Amino acid sequence: MNMMKWMVGGAMSMALALGALTGCGKSDDAANAPGGQPVKTLVVGTEATFPPFEMRNDKNEYEGYDIDMVKAIGAKIGRPVEFKDMNFDALIPALQAGQIDLIASGLSITDERKNAVLFSDPYMNAGIALAVRGDETAIKGVDDLKGKVAAVQQGATGAEAATKLKESGVLRDIKYYPTVPLAMMELVKGGADVVISDRPTSEAYIAAAGGDRVKMLSTDLQADSYGLAFRKGNENLVKQVNQAMVDLKAAGEFDKLRDKYFKTPTTKP
Prior knowledge:
By secondary structure, this protein is α/β, with parallel strands linked by helices. The chain contains nine helices and 13 strands. The relative contact order is 0.22.
C-alpha cells in the first residue's frame, strides 16, 4: 500500500440510491436482460470487517469504499446490487460455485489468483505494510523480523507474505485471525511482534483507534493493487465494469470516495 492512487469517488447520492436496490437470483453476463425481462441482481461477495473498504455501521448497514464503489458501478450498468457477507477465504470458492457474481473485498491482484478468477482493472494501488507497537524501537524494517512472531488475516496477501518470511527462516511463527482488527489486538497485547497487512486497512485501524498503541513502518514489504474479481468466462461483465470505472473516475467519483473514507476515521476497532 505504498503509493496510493485512488480512483473512485463518494458524494454520489443518486447513484448510491439506485445501487442500493437489492434483489435475488443469479447473474452472469447480461446487464439489461432483453425482451423486457427483469434485470438480474448483481450479487457481490464481501468480508465486511475490513475498514475502510467494507464494514457495517451501527444500523448493520454495509458501508465503505468498495461498497459505495460497487453501488455506483451497479447504477452505471443498470444492475441492482445485493451484498453477501462471508469469510475472506470463502470468497473465491463462492464465486467459482456461482453463489456470487463478483468479489469486492480489498482483493489483491496476484498471479496465483489470476489462475482462479478474472480481475477488473486495478482500482487502487496498495502495499503490504508492517505495523508494530507504538513503543517498539528494535523493529525498523523486514531485516529486524528475525525470530519474531507475526499476526495476519487468514487468506489475505499479508498472510502470504508472512508465509514466505517464515519459510525463508525470518519469522519464528505466524498467528492467523479472521480480521485485521483482531490481529492488531494480538499485537497490542504483546502476543505478536508485527502485523503484516494491507497498508490502507492498517492505517484506518490506527486512525480510528487513536493514541499511539500501534504505528506503521514507512517502507512496504511489497507493492500491491486491488481489483474486483469475477468468475472465469464472465468477460462481458468485466468489460462493463471496467468501462463504468473509467466513467466514474472521469467524473471525479473515485476522488470523492477517497476523501470520504480516508480523511475521516470510519470505524472503531
